[in-house]
């Protein structure tokens, strides 16, 4: 079974008309999803299944809660967000009403055992951005289990904060770069194309939109795509993150250089643009960024 990030597979969100339907779902061992309505004082999560109240007890909220390796903020932060779970059973509340007892932990453990533990370096999977920090992007790689994309693995074009590339809640594809017993590290840049893939989208003599990424004494680096930047001549009154219009003066594959001229500036910060993926495969062993004729070779060997 493939496990998806929470909130990605809408087919898992269902409303039930009777407890009998829920019991059949429990017997089949189905994975479901619903939005968390409330996190109570004991940090139990409450969800709505339609015909009956339902609760995910604190200890069933996530793998790691019981041994303290996952803090309770991981539960508190789920209010108004979709979570996955399976049904453990039913009991009566203090008013003698049926109460469904759910477990997110069980689904996460299944995800670890049946899916994530079998991933190999170079595997490409679906993920969902959950949180952005200056050092990288946290992603849900299945059933609410988190991993990290370090900031330098988000793109070839350098950025100062992941929010310049991604938004929280965004569905993306990622490739597994490093696998350790207690964590996995993922990358995005290898999926966003080589230098030539990106340069093919531009022609000498065009004027296009770009984003200022770095201002140096010798020039201004302007991002044309997440994996492609060019160098423009120095100019005053520019700021990092600014949108600009640039004239493409020349494209030189052997040096991986694009020479630009800033022709107009805009006083607004650029927003993350939709990502373009240059592979449809589910695995990669090797990624070559630099053109064959370039003296400088940039690549990722996933087999090492």
Q: Report the mean per-residue pLDDT as an integer.
A: 95
Task: Provide a count of the helices.
Answer: 4
The topology string of helices and strands comes to: HEEEHEEHEEEEEHEEEEEEE
Tell me the strand percentage band: 35-45%
Low-confidence stretches: none
Beta strands, count: 17
Largest sheet: 5 strands, mixed, barrel
Q: Describe the strand arrangement of the main beta sheet, using strand numbers.
A: 1-2-3-5-4
Anisotropy-based shape:
elongated
Structural class: mainly beta
- What portion of residues is helical? under 10%
- From the alpha carbons, calculate the radius of gyration and give it in angstroms: 24 Å
C-alpha end-to-end distance? 28 Å
């Amino acid at each position: 079974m493939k496990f998806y990030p929470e909130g990605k597979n809408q087919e898992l969100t269902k409303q039930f008309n009777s407890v009998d339907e829920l019991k059949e779902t429990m017997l089949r061992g189905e994975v479901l999803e619903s939005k968390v309505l409330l996190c109570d004082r004991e940090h139990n999560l409450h969800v709505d299944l339609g015909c009956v109240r339902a609760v995910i007890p604190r200890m069933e909220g996530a793998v790691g809660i019981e041994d303290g390796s996952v803090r309770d903020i991981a539960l508190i932060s789920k209010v108004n967000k979709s979570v996955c779970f399976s049904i453990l059973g039913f009991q009566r509340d203090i008013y003698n009403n049926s109460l469904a007892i759910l477990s997110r932990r069980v689904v996460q453990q299944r995800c670890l055992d049946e899916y994530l533990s079998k991933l190999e370096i170079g595997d490409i999977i679906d993920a969902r951005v959950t949180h952005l920090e200056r050092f990288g992007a946290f992603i849900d790689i299945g059933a609410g289990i988190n991993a990290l994309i370090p900031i330098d693995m988000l793109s070839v074009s350098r950025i100062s904060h992941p929010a310049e590339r991604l938004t929280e809640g965004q569905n993306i594809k990622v490739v597994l770069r490093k696998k350790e017993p207690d964590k996995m590290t993922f990358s995005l840049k290898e999926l966003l194309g080589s230098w030539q893939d990106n340069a093919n989208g531009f022609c000498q003599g065009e004027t296009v939109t770009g984003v200022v990424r770095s201002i140096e004494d010798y020039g201004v680096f302007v991002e044309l795509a997440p994996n492609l930047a060019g160098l423009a001549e120095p100019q005053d009154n520019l700021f990092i993150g600014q949108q600009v219009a640039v004239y493409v003066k020349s494209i030189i594959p052997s040096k991986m250089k694009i020479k630009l001229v800033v022709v107009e500036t805009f006083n607004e910060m650029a927003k993350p643009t939709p990502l373009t993926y240059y592979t449809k495969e589910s695995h990669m062993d090797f990624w070559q960024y630099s053109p064959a004729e370039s003296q400088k070779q940039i690549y990722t060997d996933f087999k090492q």
